[in-house]
Amino acid sequence: MYKNIKTFEDACKIKNLDPTALPDVSMLPEEHRASIINYYKLIIIASAINGDWKPNWNNFSKRKYFPWFKVLADDSTPSGSALAYDVYDCAYSGTDVGSRLVFKSSDLAKYAAT
Quick check: 99 pLDDT over 90? Predict the structure, then answer.
């Protein structure tokens, strides 16, 4: 079923959502609006690809998968990646991906990335 999802519109059809009904981000600075809308679209696509599966963050024995992208940047094509990192005394917290963008299998994560 997930292989029928090729676009945001395909994901909206599966989730029974109107693809033109996007979040209102007019209160945000203009340079951040597109990224928030695109993140929303990725959440919907990931949800459609995962079907009824939802990650259980209390069950560490159940794996969660996400695509890992190698970002190559130079002066002519600058790009960025996200990394959350916090260190205080002996405590450490880190993340490499938004938790709403995980998948129930490696195959689904690879499909979503492709």
Answer: no
